[in-house]
RNA sequence: GGCCCCUUCGACUAAUGGUUAGGUCACCACCCUUUCACGGUGGCUGCACGGGUUCGAGUCCCGUAGGGGUCACCA
């Protein structure tokens, strides 16, 4: 019949062992060790970044160790260069690791495909102890079983055909070279429970837990096996991961019990959501960290924004330095409900950061974009443009795309603005103003403003009647920095050229 | 469908049995102003619903509804 005895006896016999070790080596085990364990399937999802960030903040807050582990046990989904990309993204975001494939560490290797012998060994151990069993079912049979279960409305689970094969039959079939997997022997009639640091106690009836595949027929482990073997061997103290893992956690608990290992503490993070409250997905917008980098968001801003999606220390502060995030971070203040990724708020946070940075630093970040657009500017000039645009820009490309007239004369003129401010009277005014501009000796903010205001007064006009047409002629736009700042930067010759051109040609 | 989780303004959230339910983004109005932006002032909307417990419930309990996650030899 069913043999679930090994689980129970294993667990209780090793509990004593762990309790003793825990008290004897208390200092060692009080050291926080967390891991970020992505599978290298290409880009880094912003949700993954947030998970990585929370692990990082938790580790730093507690003076613990942050570990990167690559979970590449699915050979069919390997993506060339994904690990490099992952590191590039993490470095950009400022999330650092103390142990990992590049950092090294005494718990390595940190790439699961280099640890397959280990998983095999532990899988064998589970089979020997009766907590796992070989299964020879083909995927075709499994599909059929699943289909009939769906048809009858029963929960789709493995029907446990191979669970009670005799040892002689098992040996024979293995000797015959029959492909097989190793499955977890889930005990019957138990309640599996665990305490989640975010959600509290969570319980599962073991009859709802599938006899999960632990070792695939290609000899590679599944996530479930590799994950707990590594978490144990790497002495992970806290597993901080996305909510989508809650329903597989009981399988992990069962594995810890089967091995007689003390499970780590779990904290399941709320999901990042689309506007319709479904799991944040590619179909409804940008999900790759790279997308946000490319669109001109600053890493500090993205991190700040992401940190506050699902966690909040007080709600009386919106902008946090990374040091403040580390100081304040606390798993107990992580929310339970999913959070919608709100792009407008990100824009605002980004704008806040742009206003805080030095123009020199921003200019460095803007230059590549400038060159992509085919514009030219000296370093000094670019810094000046940044200074004028700084409180108007929300993202990095704004310094180029909303300010193109600083680099090249306008070829298009804003229709609405033109309709409002460009007419024969305006042109006549500019025609008369032009010689005064030409005659000016110091092309400076104050002298230009003085000329315009005196001229306007002499003609009994409001200064706006001159300012708006000049802005249109010089920039083509109805928005931007103060006119006299802008004229000063663009320079006398170029400014006059543009005004003359429009007076002569713009209808 | 089974199992698990969740539910405060449109969005992110604060509140740890006693508040006119607070802040931020977005939105609207006004002020500042040469435009846009910044800044300032004000406004708009919220405790999913129904029962309990309690002198008192957004906060505790039960139920309902709604939403989400998960049910692979993927992680």
- Oligomer status: single chain
Q: Provide the gyration radius in Å.
A: 32 Å
Which CATH C-level class of one domain is it? Mainly Alpha
By CATH, the topology of one domain is: Arc Repressor Mutant, subunit A
Number of strand elements: 11
Low-confidence stretches: 1-29
Largest sheet: 3 strands, antiparallel
What is the straight-line distance between the termini?
A: 94 Å
- In spatial order, strands of the major sheet run 3-4-7
Feature tags:
three-stranded antiparallel β-sheet; mainly alpha; disordered N terminus; RNA-binding; 507 residues; Helicase, Ruva Protein, domain 3; two-stranded parallel ribbon; Arc Repressor Mutant, subunit A; 9% strand; Glutamyl-tRNA Synthetase, domain 2
SSE topology:
Elements: H1 5-24, H2 26-30, E1 33-36, H3 46-61, E2 65-68, H4 82-93, H5 116-128, E3 132-135, H6 139-152, H7 167-175, E4 181-184, E5 191-196, E6 200-205, E7 213-215, H8 223-233, E8 238-242, H9 249-259, E9 265-269, E10 272-273, H10 289-294, H11 299-307, H12 322-328, E11 339-340, H13 343-356, H14 359-372, H15 379-389, H16 398-401, H17 415-421, H18 424-439, H19 445-458, H20 464-475, H21 483-490, H22 492-505
Parallel strand pairs: 1-2, 8-9, 10-11
Antiparallel strand pairs: 3-4, 4-7, 5-6
Helix pairs in contact: 1-9, 3-12, 8-9, 11-13, 14-15, 18-20, 18-22, 19-21
The chain binds one RNA strand of 75 nucleotides through helix 6, strand 6, helix 8, strand 11 and helix 13.
């Amino acid at each position: 019949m069913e043999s679930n005895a090994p689980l129970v006896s294993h667990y209780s016999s090793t509990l004593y062992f762990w309790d003793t070790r825990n008290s004897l080596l208390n200092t060692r085990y009080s050291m926080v060790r967390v891991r970020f364990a992505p599978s290298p399937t290409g880009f880094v999802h912003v949700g993954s970044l947030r998970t990585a960030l929370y692990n990082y903040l938790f580790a730093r807050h507690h003076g613990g160790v942050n570990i990167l582990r690559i979970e590449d046990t699915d050979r069919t989904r390997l993506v060339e260069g994904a690990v490099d990309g992952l590191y590039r993204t993490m470095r950009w975001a400022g999330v650092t690791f103390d142990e990992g494939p590049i950092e090294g560490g005494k718990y390595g290797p940190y790439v699961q495909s280099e640890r397959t012998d280990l998983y095999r060994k532990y899988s064998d151990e589970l089979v020997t102890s009766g907590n796992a069993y070989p299964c020879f079912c083909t995927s075709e049979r499994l599909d059929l079983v699943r289909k009939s279960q769906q048809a009858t409305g029963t929960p789709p689970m493995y029907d446990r055909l191979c669970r009670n094969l005799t040892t002689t039959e098992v040996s024979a079939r293995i000797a015959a070279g029959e492909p097989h997997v190793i499955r977890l022997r889930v005990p019957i009639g138990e309640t599996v429970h665990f305490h989640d640091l975010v959600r509290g106690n969570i319980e599962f009836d073991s009859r709802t837990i599938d006899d999960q595949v632990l070792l695939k027929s290609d000899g590679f482990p599944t996530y479930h096996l590799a994950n707990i073997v590594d978490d144990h061997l790497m002495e992970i103290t806290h597993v901080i991961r996305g909510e989508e893992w809650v329903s597989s956690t009981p399988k992990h608990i069962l594995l810890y019990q089967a091995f007689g290992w003390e499970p780590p503490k779990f904290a399941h993070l709320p999901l990042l959501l689309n506007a319709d409250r479904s799991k944040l997905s590619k179909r409804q917008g940008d999900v790759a960290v790279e997308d946000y980098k490319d669109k001109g968001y600053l890493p500090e801003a993205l991190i700040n924004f992401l940190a506050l999606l699902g966690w909040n220390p007080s709600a009386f502060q919106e902008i946090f330095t990374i040091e403040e995030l580390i100081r304040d971070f606390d798993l107990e203040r992580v929310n339970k409900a999913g959070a919608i990724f709100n792009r407008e708020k990100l824009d605002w946070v980004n704008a806040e950061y742009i206003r805080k940075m030095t123009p020199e630093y921003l200019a460095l970040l803007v230059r590549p974009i400038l060159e992509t657009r085919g514009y030219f500017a000296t370093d000094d000039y670019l810094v000046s443009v940044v200074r004028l645009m700084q409180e108007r820009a929300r993202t990095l490309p704004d310094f180029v795309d909303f300010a193109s007239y600083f680099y090249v004369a306008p070829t298009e003129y804003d229709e609405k603005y033109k309709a409002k401010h460009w007419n024969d009277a305006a042109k006549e005014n500019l025609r008369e103003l032009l010689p005064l501009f030409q005659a000016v000796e110091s092309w400076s903010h104050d002298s230009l403003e003085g000329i315009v205001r005196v001229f306007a007064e002499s003609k009994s006009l409001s200064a706006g009647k001159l300012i708006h047409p000049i802005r249109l002629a010089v920039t083509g736009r109805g928005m931007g920095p103060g006119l006299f700042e802008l004229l000063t930067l663009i320079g006398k010759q170029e400014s006059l050229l543009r005004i003359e051109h429009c007076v002569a040609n713009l209808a």
